[in-house]
Amino acid sequence: MKNIFLNNFTVTRQRRNAKDHYKSVVIWFTGLSGSGKTTLAQAVEEKLHQAYCRTMLLDGDNIRHGLCKDLGFSNEDRKENIRRIGEVAKLFIESGAITLVSFISPFKEGRDKVKELLGGVIEIYVKCPINVCENRDVKGMYKKSRANEIEDFTGIDSLYETPISPDLIVYTDQETLGESVNKVLGVLINRGIINNEN
């Protein structure tokens, strides 16, 4: 951008990570509404917090109450929503936090752009059949979509592109919450993000 310059700071992500017993990373939870993304992300964050890791959980609904409250649910607005959260997540990993992102993030293109921006993420596909998500329907959104009270609802009249090669798939209709949490923590241990002593 013209007349705007990036500053290079001396205290970097690498230097912050060197002072901690873990590494900052983005854990990106994607899946249909009602699949259990935020429930899982909260449970993982709780375990990490108890292990003295600095964390931040970014949730799609919460972000739409503030930073993205000007966006709707058209394809273009959904792309912008994910672009913005990618930039926010970048700030948090630079600060040295393990950043958990819980967004439907329906389009492969948007997820790929975020991975490029962040130099990679740990992508967790929270897989759950749509009929199970619809039966849960905690927020009543599937019912409203079926009644044509809302438009562009992912999985009903808006596309969800299944991740091709996520780092982990959790099956929330088959696994207990504890089992899914342990699977995520196992990936973090195997990647050297945290250690068994955490």
Poorly predicted regions are: none
Structural class: alpha/beta
Distance between the termini: 43 Å
Q: List the strand order in the largest sheet.
A: 2-3-1-4-5
Strand tally is: 5
Largest sheet: 5 strands, parallel
- The residue fraction in helices comes out at 40-55%
Shape: globular
- CATH C-level class is Alpha Beta
Task: Return the string of H and E elements.
Answer: HEHEHHEHEHHEH
Total domain modules: 1
Topology record:
Elements: H1 13-18, E1 25-30, H2 37-50, E2 55-59, H3 60-63, H4 75-94, E3 98-102, H5 108-118, E4 122-127, H6 130-136, H7 141-146, E5 168-171, H8 177-190
Parallel strand pairs: 1-3, 1-4, 2-3, 4-5
Helix pairs in contact: 2-8, 4-5
Q: Which characteristics define this entry?
A:
198 residues, alpha/beta, Rossmann fold, 8 helices, 13% strand
Give a written overview of the molecule.
The protein is of the alpha/beta class. Helices cover 41% and strands 13% of the residues. The protein contains eight helices and five strands, in the order H-E-H-E-H-H-E-H-E-H-H-E-H. It has a five-stranded parallel beta sheet with strand order 2-3-1-4-5, with helices on both faces. Helix 2 packs across helix 8 (177-190). The longest helix has 20 residues, at 75-94. The N and C termini lie far apart (43 Å).
Summarize this, please?
By secondary structure, this protein is an alpha/beta fold. The protein has eight helices and five strands.
